[in-house]
Design goal:
With about 220 residues, the chain is an all-alpha fold. It has helices spanning about 1-30, 30-40, 45-50, 55-60, 75-90, 95-105, 105-115, 115-135, 145-165, 170-185, 190, 200-219.
């Protein structure tokens, strides 16, 4: 058990260090040596988990998708909104997300290690499909099409926010994006119940942390 815990901690440290270097330098300029130095692990420990820089990039991309920062909701559309608003809040604060953005935007790199975009489309499609089954989404909506449309708008909004304010207004811009898109797909009964306020992501994260702390106290 102790060995497994050490392996988990080592992998987490390597992912964090790789994300920092990829976010700062991009994939091409990043070196295994610098990642090793940041992680504070041996070369053997790193290669036990990742056999190449390409594998490290994949690991950073895969680490983005986590449900730990949001919780299931009665309305699946609210859960979908929460995912987007949490992302908007976290991007300026989470180096793994920043690295994922930079890696996903690397045209040459994407051919080797892919991007985070398919995973986000898959998650959105799943939540929108569940929302449609529950009658929260209008019958004409095709979840996969809406997921792809939203991701395209998201990427553009994120890039514009980065260029204009270094992401300081990203939550406000994503709130506006949801407010424009949701009336086209949500049923009126669901739409009126949705919370898309700019501070929604911060509140959801705070809620998740309090729930996590409560579980830790009880155990």
């Amino acid at each position: 058990m102790a060995r497994q815990e050490r392996a988990v901690r080592t992998r987490r440290a390597v992912i964090q260090a790789a994300a920092e270097v990829f976010a700062e330098r991009g994939y091409a300029a990043a070196t295994i040596a610098e990642i090793l130095d940041r992680a504070g692990v041996t070369k053997g420990a790193l290669y036990f988990h990742f056999d190449s820089k390409e594998a490290l990039a994949r690991g950073v991309i895969e680490a983005q998708i986590s449900s730990s920062a949001w919780t299931p909701r009665e309305l699946k559309l609210q859960e979908w909104v929460d995912v987007g608003m949490v992302l908007a809040h976290q991007i300026p604060r989470d180096v793994i997300l920043l690295a994922g953005i930079r890696l996903s935007a690397d045209l040459q790199g994407r051919r080797m290690f892919g991007s985070a975009w398919p995973a986000w489309i898959e998650l959105s499609t799943k939540l929108l499909a569940e929302a449609k089954e529950r009658g929260e989404v209008m019958p004409h909506v095709v979840p996969a099409e809406s997921a792809e449309c939203f991701l395209g708008a998201w990427i553009g909004t994120q890039m514009f926010s980065e260029a204009s304010s270094d992401w300081s207004d990203l939550s406000e811009r994503i709130s506006v994006l949801f407010n424009h898109m949701l009336p086209a797909i949500a049923t009126p009964a669901a739409l009126i119940r949705l919370d898309t306020a700019p501070d929604r992501g911060a509140r959801v994260i705070d809620e998740a942390r309090r729930a996590e702390a409560l579980v830790a106290t009880e155990s």
